[in-house]
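RECORD TYPE: inverse folding
INPUT: structure tokens
STRUCTURE:
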């Protein structure tokens, strides 16, 4: 039984995240999507932890071996807690590489029984990010096709209120 953790801030989840989770769910027996509280991130996340967990849960409800949970600890501690031996992450353009490489090295140093593995983003999502999506939507641009439908609804509602 190979259980993997797929961590991130998911503020909000994009179709790039969803693609990685779908592909990971075909490789591993179980995927636990771990949504980080990440209060320190760029002025704080747009969506609360509960909203982010809910959006990921709704967008992945077609995947029976995927579950979602929040976390506010070291990632390797969460992995141990849920019985996962793999951290699976998406890798986009080369700009991701240095940060991901650093995190993978540090996580391995903290617990060498947990392996980090990467799934390379498809070209369509190579430059897609949560922050770009928020920027486009914040200026009234269309993000349909870049995020799951339920995320699009929330995003439009949230940013319209804030205008
Ligand atoms: O979506 P993100 O913001 O790239 O995800 C980053 C995340 C949440 C995976 C990373 O910040 C993380 O693992 N945070 C938990 C704290 C931790 O374990 N830090 C040590 C790794 S260097």
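DESIGNED SEQUENCE:
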């Amino acid at each position: 039984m190979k259980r993997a953790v797929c961590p991130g801030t998911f503020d909000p989840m994009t179709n790039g995240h969803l693609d990685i989770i779908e592909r990971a769910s075909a490789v591993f027996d179980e995927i636990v999507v771990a949504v980080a509280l990440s209060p320190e991130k760029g002025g704080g996340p747009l969506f609360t932890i509960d909203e982010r967990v809910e959006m990921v849960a709704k967008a992945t409800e077609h995947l029976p071996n995927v579950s979602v949970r929040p976390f506010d600890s070291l990632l390797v501690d969460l992995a141990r807690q849920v019985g996962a031996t793999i951290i699976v992450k998406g890798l986009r353009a080369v700009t991701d590489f240095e940060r991901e490489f650093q995190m993978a090295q540090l996580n391995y140093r903290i617990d060498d029984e947990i392996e980090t593995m990467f799934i390379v983003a498809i070209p369509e999502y190579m430059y897609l990010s949560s922050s770009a999506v928020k920027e486009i939507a914040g200026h009234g641009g269309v993000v349909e096709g870049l995020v799951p439908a339920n995320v699009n609804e929330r995003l439009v509602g949230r940013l319209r209120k804030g205008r």
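NOTES: The chain has a mean pLDDT of 94.
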